[in-house]
Request: fold
Amino acid sequence: MTERRTGGEGSSPPALAAVDLGATSGRVVVGRLESGRLAMEQVARFPNTPVPFTEGHGTEGLHWNIQALYGAVEEGLGAAVRSAPGLCSIGIDSWAVDYALLRGGRMLGVPYHYRDARSARGVELVHAEADGAELFARNGLQHLDFNTVFQLAAERESGFLDLADRLLLLPDLLAYWLTGRARAEATNASTTGLLSVADRTWDTELMRRLGYSPGLFADLVRPGERIGPFTAGVAERLGADRDRVQVTAVGSHDTASAVAAVPFETPDAAYISSGTWSLVGLELDAPVLTAQARAANFTNEGGVDGRVRFLRNVSGLWLLSESVRTWRDADRRPGAAGDGADLQELLDEAAKVEREVPVFDAADERFVPPGNMPARIRDWCGERGVRPPGSRAEVVRSILESLAAAYARTIDAAEELSGRRVRTVHVVGGGSQNALLCRLTARRTGRRVVAGPVEATAIGNLLVQARSAGLVSPEATLEDLRSIVRVSFPVTVYEP
Reply:
């Protein structure tokens, strides 16, 4: 594969910017291809803090502070323009399923957070029209109460959906605010429950049955397609050259971008995209739509270059971060005598725990909402007559053992359902830095674990842009892009 350079003699070397948004923070990363390797620099990082609002009948809804997030994205892109005069493309990725409703181009209300409780009612409403088996046959998705198809049913019952003439998933919304062009990127659209798994087009028949106007949904674009240049106002605020910089569709579901950067060398490998959630599965060429796959709650989401991400959502480092938050809150109370809530110290102590700790069901729905995870773990154990973890280090060890056990069960199931043998497990994302979790995963799966790269989501985002911008051959395959990952970023290997 040939690296290419654009721009005339004496011009600034071409650069790319990835806007990578997670459930707790976001950042802007600048990337450049240098001698066949990808070099990256983080130019901005900012918090992403959900906000609870009091709503009708005294209830409290959980929402995303999307206006503040967009403001931080613009500031970060301004930093990218200043640090990389040769900037030619930006791509945006984020978490899935959440959306904004618009009318006449203006946003209606504040987007809900997927952890908001209203989705349970949406499940009842949708299943009255189409049961779980039919939905799986149509969209290939595992059942999650917060899938967009269910959120919209709650929205429709409230009457709010009737006010809208456009729906945009959150990365598409930010791209719209930057360019004025409303598009729906396909990998993220595949998580809505409203995209046909057969041909990856909008399922307008299901939309009509559920009372969702097909006109709400924007035209689809695939990773690598251009969305458009900045608006004049955005370009002026950022100091960017409108004629040079394009907003490019990438795998806008962050897991799609992360999986694009997994440094697979052979097909007999699984991946764990490890962050707030753990996405555990295989990359396939075709979906697995058997009754057994549905019963095992596997999903078939869209990937870059038409690949299928056959995976299951497993609770992830959310369990650990919420536990640490709970302990830090407790330690700040007057008269508290906490024994410390420094994450690295807790991990070091957890590695030394010799007493057997409980392995709980990390997929239990009680662990999905924010809250006191150590108390919930104790409750889970108490209900089953199991001795709960005692010290904070034991709680951390219990969480990591439980996650590793869940990974092992999921990989074994994926192997059986797909017929593909798994010999290697790739761990990418923040969890790849957690040496104890990686060692436990190798032990419990009985498979070689390859950890890294940490920044897989930003890497996948940037490499799809690089191909679109002509910085590598437009004919480069996903395997060609992964060869850049292998030479650019180190990995750590853990043997079982």
